[in-house]
Amino acid sequence: MTAVQLAHRAEGVLRTFNEAGVLAAADVHVALRLQRLGGETSDSVLLATALAVRAVRMGSVCVELQGMSEVTVEEPDRDIAALPWPDVDDVVAALQRSPLVIGSSTGPLRPLRLVETDEGELLYLDRYFRQEQTIRHVLDERARSRPKVDLAELSGGLSAYFRDADDPSQPSQAPDRQRIAAALATTQWTTILAGGPGTGKTHAVARILALLLRQHGPGLRIGLAAPTGKAAAQLQEAVSSQADILGLPSGLTAMTLHRLLGWKPGSASRFRHNAANRLPYDVVVVDETSMVPLTMMCRLLEAIRPDARLLLVGDPDQLASVEAGAVLADLVARPAVGVESAVLTSVVEADLTAADDPKEAALSAAERDRLRDGVIRLSRGRRFGGAIADLAVAVREARTDEVMRLLASSSSAVSLHPPDDLDALRDDVVRSAAAVTAAAEAGDVAAALDEMERHRLLCAHREGPYGVAHWAHQATAWIGAATGHPLERMRWYPGQPLLVTVNDYESKIFNGDTGVIVKGRDGSLLAAFPRAGNPVLLHPTRLSALQTVYAMTIHRSQGSQYDTVSVLLPAQESSLLTRELLYTAITRARKHVRIIGTEEALRAGVGRQVLRASGLRRPVGNSVW
Ligand SMILES: Nc1ncnc2c1ncn2[C@@H]1O[C@H](COP(=O)(O)OP(=O)(O)OP(=O)(O)O)[C@@H](O)[C@H]1O
Predict the structure, then answer these.
(1) d(Cα 175, Cα 193) in Å, to the nearest integer?
(2) Is 201 labelled as part of a ligand binding site?
(3) Model pTM?
(4) Residue 374, by phi and psi: left (phi above 0), alpha (psi -120 to 50) or beta?
(5) 193 C-alpha vs ligand 1 centroid, how far in Å?
(6) Signal sequence span per UniProt (predicted)?
(7) 177, 245, 315, 382: residue to mutate for ligand 1 pocket, most atoms within 8 A of CB
(8) How confident is the model at residue 337, as a pLDDT?
(9) CA-to-CA distance for 295 and 128, rounded, in angstroms?
(10) What is the pLDDT of residues 186-241, one digit of tens each?
(11) Which pLDDT value is given to residue 108?
(12) How many other CB atoms are there within 10 angstroms of residue 243's CB atom?
């Protein structure tokens, strides 16, 4: 059990909620500070303020006051409902009078914002409300006009780039959502290209760039970015690998969003590029957008020129950023506000109206509606088919019985093991370590890196009996017992799996990169990291933050895939065990996903959703105090 950190100065209701683990010491401190500065005396307002701070800490953008008591805490046996929750109407009334709330009649300092919606009031820290408003405003402004397009050129391009995979002499069969995505991105300023792993998002992005080059010529300035260095490197590799066949410029580089926007040392949220100094690109592509938090999305949208195309790419069903906001999921789920595009309809009418095809279902009315805002979701799996994809979809759609049925089926691609059934896991850990070590000892860098992709052990937690630390230790012990060489005492050894935890721009090695120690030609030990065609080799002491990684958190594994993934489920009460977490873990596997845990834990996970409160996905026109 984790002891709750208590705020020393907390009294009354704040103390009670702090002791119960609902509020952290930091939430209490902020609320008390604002109370002092604003001269607020109401306990209800204090509690609501602390809950608004807590909400951001937990990844939400605001608190839904009607549901403010529906919180989960780390210690599952706490009776949260029994806490002295104030009446919601009283809280709202107190907030409307509070000097801390914008629009109230009194008070010099107004850090809070109360917003009324059809589903009840939302309480924001005003800063996040303003960021949400900026995002909404910029996107709505961008949707008011459309780029000029050479339609003949566009039709020619669509027909050239979207061919039937089995018979390239023919255009692909309608409906082809990739073709719709490409037509959208050419005919609108903003496109949101959503889809699960292997649905061909990057394939479509490369073709979209080719279409835009046909429209605008080789002078088109392209900015490629992603939230992490690793994701940026992957985007660059994926686009570069298609550059030749599509005639894209060679040497296209992708960078982190921080770098794209011009990160200023010492400022976490202010960038060189902003509304007054816009980004120089004609098209900006952001990959892995699910990991982009609200503040970063706001800064990006402020900095992008109104006449630059923006392509936001990602999987809205994956775990969101650790910071506040699940912007991609919100933008995909937002009610449509844009108007239908006759140009788009004319270019891809066959795709919009086609009936079900064996490979791809017809577009639903809801999907057609979302096209008005530039939102398209790719659904046809291009990489892995069968049971893994079915399991991922069943988890995403919370069809628990179907999840259990798939795991009980005879498929060799998915399996569920009780917590004490560890033989297959141990075999995979030992076999994969032996193969990596053999290649690393032989100095075969490519083979060592390939072998690293065969199996990955994933955990929800970092600490505790279900955590990475414990299971990495267990894996090390299994490997040591199998080889007769205990690994713990060695600093560097061939076959040692590595995880980088800090960006190193000079070496182009990024937080989240994984690699392996290999023997160099002269027998010295080097850290190897995969890069398309050309692995990076460095002396391990050149990198300041390297960990040995026999197990990894599911959060960390985002953006990577492995042949076999073993997922260790925590106890069913764990608030980390959610549908998004399971979906993310399952979709890391190419050939086999092995889930280790109880059926109860799995059912609990499928049933639990990460509810990140925000106003972005609600209809506009709410009255605001
Ligand atoms: N229309 C297509 N025709 C033929 N092959 C395709 C098509 N679309 C995608 N592919 C292939 O399917 C595989 C997966 O595509 P891609 O990498 O673009 O998916 P993704 O959605 O970007 O996946 P991830 O999110 O995991 O990076 C790739 O090998 C790609 O070349």
Answers:
(1) 16
(2) yes
(3) 0.88
(4) left
(5) 13
(6) none
(7) 382
(8) 81
(9) 8
(10) 999 999 999 988 889 999 999 999 999 999 999 999 999 999 877 888 899 899 99
(11) 59
(12) 16
Structural domains of the chain, with CATH: 12-128 (1.10.10), 183-341+363-378 (3.40.50.300), 395-607 (3.40.50.300)
Residue 198 assigned to a binding site: yes
Helix (H) or strand (E) holding 299: helix 294-303
Among 177, 202, 208, 291, say which to mutate for ligand 1: greatest number of ligand atoms within 8 Å of CB.
202
From 158, 203, 244, 286, mutation site for ligand 1 pocket: most ligand atoms within 8 A of C-beta: 203
Residues 235-294: tens digit of each pLDDT: 998 999 999 999 999 889 999 898 899 977 666 567 899 999 999 999 999 999 999 999
Closest ligand 1 atom to residue 587 Cα is: 26
Q: Is 335 annotated as a binding residue?
A: no
Q: Is 287 left (phi over 0), alpha (psi -120 to 50) or beta?
A: beta
Biggest alpha carbon–alpha carbon distance for the chain: 76
Element (H, E) at 580: helix 579-586
Q: Give the tokens for residue 568.
A: 């260790």
Distance CA 27, CA 14 (A): 9
Could you tell me how many residues make up the chain?
625
Task: Identify the CA nearest to 514 among candidates 569, 470, 551.
Answer: 551
Q: 428 vs 103, which has greater pLDDT?
A: 428
Count of helices and strands (H, E) across the chain: 22, 19
For the Cβ of 163 lying below 6 angstroms from any atom of ligand 1, the answer is no
Provide the CA 390 distance to its chain's centre, in angstroms: 21
Is 195 annotated as a binding-site member?
yes
Mean pLDDT of 101-124: 81
Distance separating alpha carbons of residues 457 and 564, to the nearest angstrom:
9
Q: Is the CB of 195 under 6 A from ligand 1?
A: yes
- 364/12: higher pLDDT: 364
Block residue for tokens 């709750």: 4
